[in-house]
Amino acid sequence: MKIILSEYSSGFSDYSYILCNELSKDININKLVYLTDKNNIYIKKINSRVKVVKLFNCFAADDRHKKGSILWLFNRGLTTLLNCIKRNKYVRKEKPDTILIQSTLVLFDSYFLKSLRKITRVVLTVHDVIAPTKSMEWSMKSLKRMYENADLLVVHSETNKKQLIEIFKIQEDKIRVIPHGVNSKFLKYDKNECRKQLNILDNKKVFLFYGGIRKSKGLDILIKALKGIDCILIISGNLPYGESFEEYRKLILENGIRTVEYIKFTEDAFRDILFQASDYLVLPYKEFYSQSGVFMQSIQYHVPIIATDVSSFKEFINKYDIGFIAKPNDQSSLRKVILNAITIQKDYEENMNQAILENSWEVAGRLYAETLK
Hints:
By secondary structure, the chain is of the alpha/beta class. The chain starts with a strand and ends with a helix. Helix 1 crosses helix 14. The strands form two sheets. Strands 3-2-1-4-5-6-7 form a seven-stranded parallel beta sheet, sandwiched between helices. Strands 10-9-8-11-12-13 form a six-stranded parallel beta sheet, with helices on both faces. It has helices spanning 13-23, 70-94, 106-116, 140-149, 158-168, 191-197, 219-225, 246-255, 268-276, 293-300, 313-320, 331-343, 349-359, 361-372, and strands at 2-6, 31-37, 50-56, 98-101, 121-125, 152-155, 175-177, 205-210, 231-236, 259-262, 280-283, 305-308, 323-326. The protein is 41% helix and 17% strand.
């Protein structure tokens, strides 16, 4: 069986390289090709059974064009169009049994997938049932068309499957649920040593807000909810291009919150320290139609989770009893849940181990291999 895995967005390359390594273990896959972009920093971690092809061009550096400008839009549109053409041409030449697409641009692949299906079976991993940011690159109509033009859709939770069925009227038998994948290994450090590296020298509760700082993720609500609570908030993540952290900094000062801030891309090694210094990961999202990779990373590090009732957070937290759920976009509810979490002394180790066992990369890789047959 010959499989091509295609992905040209650095936002998913940390997922794709692990999936490639897992798929390469399957004896039924005698050739596995990974199509990726030229700036993929994870290529060196891919094992030798996977053929890596740096096929795709990257967008121009953000500082070259103002976001939303004609040049910015033209660069992204043209780059993606050429990448779609390159991918389809490569598939036409190689004639794989299946192509597994990890990320794409809806604007073009709502059409390009249809022609791709004439060459091979198309399986699309739907990481975001609805993208977390509004953009001219997609609409609900184009999303529906893209989903309909794939042979099979993979989602990471039953909640996301339900969203595809209810929002986009996708047939149930066209959807497979495969867990996102959780790593069980990481460099283990002493919590106090991690806190020292972050200059946290007292024994307070530490909450972690981690990942891209988009408005829909509710950092503003979290800051307000923490007012008067004796704790430390770690904020680590990138801002969308062109946006400023100043509005959050103003809220931090107004509400008297003690913070540790790393407003930039986080290397994997530093992520180890951030999570192991924390008592809880907090995901105060206002809306969400995905299965969060950050959520799964928290399971990896055995850090319990406080999240709002959006997407599949409640599904996983209730199933494994690994945290607490608050109402979305509700400062009072989030504050109440945080105060409750602080007072509860609980060992989550056994529950986290069970969650890792059932959602491991080994499980995800096996289910993907079965789906691709």
